[in-house]
Design a protein that fits this description.
Shape: elongated
Order of helices and strands: HHHHHHHHH
Largest sheet: none
Number of domains: 2
Strand content: under 5%
Number of strands: 0
Number of helices: 9
Structural class: mainly alpha
Distance between the termini: 51 Å
Oligomer: single chain
């Protein structure tokens, strides 16, 4: 058993990960500061450091809020469906078909966002189309999330 096997089997807690990430950030900033002192002002590195120095407030804004995500995966996931729909919509033959595809894409994505099952929601709308036409606001996905999931 090597002396590193204990370290490899260690499972870090959230607190440990946070401390390690702050230590990593501090080391990165220290290295950046040393690089800033030794930089050539017109080089690519010098321009990068000048950019960092001039935009320090917005670049470090996320660190002022505890628990702020370090990435924008939520936004990228929400855009993914629209991008896939744009790619798949190249095969529409008519404007009406494209409009209908856009409507379904919007309904399915809205159902996913409010935790409703899109298939069950659309089937329920189909079965109760007359009621949905009479009172459309009662049949929006977020009003029926519990009924259709």
């Amino acid at each position: 058993m090597s002396r590193f096997s204990k370290f490899i089997k260690y499972k870090a807690s959230q607190k440990d990960i946070l401390v390690l990430s702050w230590v990593g950030l501090a080391c990165t900033l220290a290295g950046a500061f040393i690089g800033f002192l030794l930089r050539e002002p017109n080089s690519g590195l010098g321009q990068a450091f000048n950019y960092m120095r001039n935009h320090w407030e917005p670049l470090t804004l996320f660190m002022r809020l505890a628990g702020a995500p370090l990435d924008n995966n939520i936004c990228e996931r929400s855009l993914k469906m629209a991008i896939l729909h744009r790619k798949n919509s190249l095969g529409y033959k008519t404007q009406n078909g494209a409009r209908l595809g856009d409507m379904f894409m919007s309904l399915i994505h809205t159902c996913r966002l409010c935790a409703a099952n899109p298939l069950n929601y659309l089937c329920t709308l189909q079965r109760r189309a007359k009621e949905a036409l009479e009172h459309p606001t009662e049949w929006l996905p977020w009003n029926n999330a519990s009924d259709t999931s």
